[in-house]
Batch of 4 targets.
Target 1
Amino acid sequence: MPIIYRKYEPPHIDPDVTTGKDHAPGPPDARADIAERDLTAIRRLISQDLSEPYGIYVYRYFIYQWPHLCFLALDDGDSGTGSSYSVNEQATTSIEDKAHADTQTQKDNLVGVVVCKLASHRGVKQRGYIAMLAVATAYRGRGIATKLVRMAIDRMIEDGADEIVLETEVDNESAIRLYEKMGFIRSKRMHRYYMNASDAFRLVLPVKVESTIRYCVLADEFDVGPRSVAD
Ligand SMILES: CC(C)(COP(=O)(O)OP(=O)(O)OC[C@H]1O[C@@H](n2cnc3c(N)ncnc32)[C@H](O)[C@@H]1OP(=O)(O)O)[C@@H](O)C(=O)NCCC(=O)NCCS
């Protein structure tokens, strides 16, 4: 089962869709319709394991504004596992639809996704944020998440990120191990962060020197190695 990795390629989206204005009856054109179908596939994969489901507006917020920071893993073969999710699975009719479908390759099945953003943090630094990450159950343990996160990190660094952060539930061992293997450190524990009342760790990957120094100083000041915050 060969896996293809690539950036999400959205169709052109009407700006009104991103703001949610006048959105009640549904997306205004066919391209937005395709974009919504892509989001549905991504959302279905991610929501499998979430302790709290995100609304569609959360997906629109991230993926419409930072499509270049959304990376997909697609099973290129006839997996037959029944555990992947088609991106652009429905038949398309218009020329624009057809062009988009050609780039997305309808046969591909979505088996992994990472969704990120990059924005100014308090006007002093560029902070990359990994909002969501998921790999379909049958495809786990093969390095797919590592590859997707690597692609996202590389792109955020290329775009000027000073640091990259995320939150994860304190008992999500697989995610914590994955990120710590990639150099992330625990910067704080957030009490009852999730709706299910569980705590979260904020994990940080300092990229620029200033950011690295800051997190080293913090760890030193409180006399805790980043990992021991969890103890
Ligand atoms: C976390 C998740 C994305 C990992 O995906 P994956 O493709 O299996 O991860 P990888 O194969 O790249 O694994 C990388 C490292 O993560 C750690 N890891 C992954 N799965 C693990 C598990 N079940 N138990 C312990 N460590 C695990 C390991 O250190 C692994 O490296 P190794 O295989 O060399 O030991 C996947 O389990 C998932 O989708 N979970 C549900 C959603 C989720 O928790 N997302 C993260 C929210 S912050």
Target 2
Amino acid sequence: MFRTGLRRLTAAAPASNAIRPAFFSASASSSFAAPVVAAANPPSQHTLDVSSALGVVDGFVGAIGNTPLVRLRHLSEQTGCEILGKAEFANPGGSVKDRAALYVVLDAEERGLLKPGGTVIEGTAGNTGIGLAHVCAARGYKLVIYMPDTQSQGKIDLLRLLGAEVHPVPAVAFDNPMNYNHQAARHAARLDNAVWTNQFDNTANRRAHIETTGPEIWKQTAGRVDAFTCATGTGGTLAGTTRYLKDVSGGKVQCFLADPPGSVLHSYLSSGGKLVERSGSSITEGIGQGRVTDNLQPDIGLLDGSLTIADEKSIAMVYRCLAEEGLYLGASSALNVVAAKEVAEKLGRGHTVVTILCDGAYRYADRLFSRKWLTDKKLIDAIPAELQHHIVLP
Ligand SMILES: Cc1ncc(COP(=O)(O)O)c(C=O)c1O
């Protein structure tokens, strides 16, 4: 359906992203010739990897997707399973939300809602705003962001420096007409050539993962995937990837929702569909939900189960991934890795479990690596003693 700029996204994942045997022959399909290597100096594995890397992509949009699928070595050894993380932090805007941002904009273009010079409006305090800021700049649109005024100045500054017009508004509940999402919708309705992209209930978000994330995972594992798990914010990633993997495997891939404290979806699923009031909170950002969004609704019935992951486990995994794997991950990614480990333990040795590494820890470092913040959150003791030397901020 989406044609513009998605050639690389919808193309089969390149050989460089597939799980490779230890030695493989360099592919001749690369756009660039392999580097010349002196005959006396046989090519190293690294040279072969470079020679089969992707060719040129078209701008920011062309660089979205086809992220590596990273085998987490320590957790794989520990569980006797293959634990694989989709490295979404490698998207050009730095998170999994680049995919959704691109799809909601392309969807608005295709539906004739957005023409050159138009305005995109969204309610977001996080990665979707960052993804949209890049996509809008790359495609020639203005971006207006509404967010609750409880968000840090750092987030406002970041979106402004990326070119967005930012409106921090009082933090009120969704059923209040002054909620930031409703204000975003009204702003779009007031303007010509403007669209409220509505990431929570616009299913172009879910479609990004049906058409890109799911097929990439299937291709990268050569169809050898037993389970998939991740947390939900809008639900686009979980729903779309689950839909694709269920369809392509004839229902064989087991899919699990991973929930942080303060989200209602684990209890919704385990109670057979009872929606309770939200209570509690989590240190994770971008995930946790109080309702079944339109993105999640069509696929929630496909799920095989759900897990709830305590903040103590997520924060410890932030530190483990850094120390053991060299991966500097945000807390939602770490929660997903804990969920993948728990799913692997439930399935038993010999299975392949895939999860999402949503973003890096860069935007969260002042909290996740601060002694004061960890102490205030009563999480300092959750960090294993041998990893506490990473807590370098006061
Ligand atoms: C850091 C992070 N992780 C996970 C998610 C959840 O992704 P989705 O909205 O597709 O459920 C988000 C969404 O904003 C996010 O910012």
Target 3
Amino acid sequence: MADVLLQDLWFHQVEGVVVESVIPDGELVVVRARTAAGQAACPACGTASARVHSRYVRRLADSSVGGRPALIELRVRRFRCSQQGCSQATFAEQVAGLTFRHGRRSAGLQTVLERVAVMLAGRAGSRLAHTLAAKVSRSTLLRLIRRLQAPETSTPRVLGVDDFALRKGHNYGTILLDIETHQPVDLLPDRTTATVARWLAEHPGVEVICRDRSTAYAEAGRLGAPDAVHVADRWHIWSNLAEAVEKTVVQHRALLREPQDTTIAAAAEALEGLDLDLAPAGPRTTGRLSDRVREQHEAVRALLGQGIAMREIGRRLGLARNTVRRYAHVASADELLVGRWTGRTSILDPYKPPRPSNGTRRRHRGVREGGRLCPGCGGLPGRCEPVPLPSGGRCARSAR
Ligand SMILES: [Zn+2]
């Protein structure tokens, strides 16, 4: 009865193994077992053979029992291949679900360690494995990952393309994703047009390419999958929108109304007695982006002043070389905040308020200086009253 229970406990999914004994041995639990199948198949030709050549004991580390590492001492046989002319004269038998060629762990423990390695990788995986009483080094876990077969993937209908940093600011690769299953499909060694275009040409069937706005990926899509529709992915749309809004707000901060004094005063009055240290309210003159640009510009200029090379500055500040170069070439950070799209035509132009000519701007100056904004100036909407102009005329728009 006890033997049947042990058999079921240890090898419930394994056939052809007989447990002989289970012995606690210091820090170990040793399971002695032997193979019991009448014959084994040759790994080279597949012919079954019952001609035993020799016997020996294999030692396999197994998942721990009660916090103690388990060791399976399995008596196995070496067979002679009965197929004449087979390249494999003799072969060792393997037990499906328990052993594999040259393996020094049970198949079960190997699977557990592979999962740990995939989820946690080297160091963290090694620490967890020690806790689970299966001592493996981080290098062993990384080796296990490298030996794993890559899962079979089919060419996705909707392909996500984005870059990732192997070393930020220096080396970048490209990751390809199946947007419908959210599974990674492939990793490419760089982010050049040629590499991505070649992959697309070798994997026909992509209907939609979901990407950022880089010209390299746009061109790769046009070359490798000319029929595919290009869409901007949601993350980049939000990221670009947030940056554009922030930049626009920073540029036009002078037009923003100051908070009503009465509201501040009322709030301060309400909070009086709470002993709060309220800072005086003032117009907002900085944004996150502008702060960042100013800080980085200042740091780059300071390091340049010390005679440090741009490459080294980039390394120290974690900035791309081109970013460092941009900071180095302008005297003031404000020049960078103007925006590179200023003055360019855009598909959004028909929806923007009309930009007044210089002459109109001059004529409306009096209205703006008076504290009211005229719609003709493109500022915030306000009431435009006829005002005398230096030339003796009147505001053209309000005179209509
Ligand atoms: Zn054979």
Target 4
Amino acid sequence: MSATLRRQDVPPQPGPPCEVIRCGPGPGIRCQILSNAVWGCWTHWDGHRSRECLGEASDCAGHANGWPTRWKGYVSIWCAMRRSVVLLELTPASAGEIIRQAGCDKSLRGLLLRLDRHGSSIRAKIAVELSASVADNTNLPAAMDPEPILRKLWGWKVKD
Ligand SMILES: [Zn+2]
């Protein structure tokens, strides 16, 4: 008598979905922005990973330990290559360039964004190109809220 096969018709996923991407060396990023505006926050670098900053006046472990601070910007995007909604992490310079090109009081939602890193260094300049979409954008997916994703990713305490 043969045992029952362990069957599954849905292919196994290679890993957890990559919810946060950044512009690295190699192929650039081509996407459509879903957020109305850049969402930014300060973080600390503890030598291994990013940690939350609660501000100098609060009980901030990063401030108490003197860990360097870094500003990170995020926009929610539709990534055609991944066919999914993800968060795009932005450097201060590339976030500033997106805001400058869009016009500081204009919504970013629906705009097409190209990011290309020139060189392999993490300090290499990122070229930003924003353009209007000619497609009908009324049925774009909803933007993601960055905060719960970042809190989960960085092991932050989740707010009650
Ligand atoms: Zn802090």
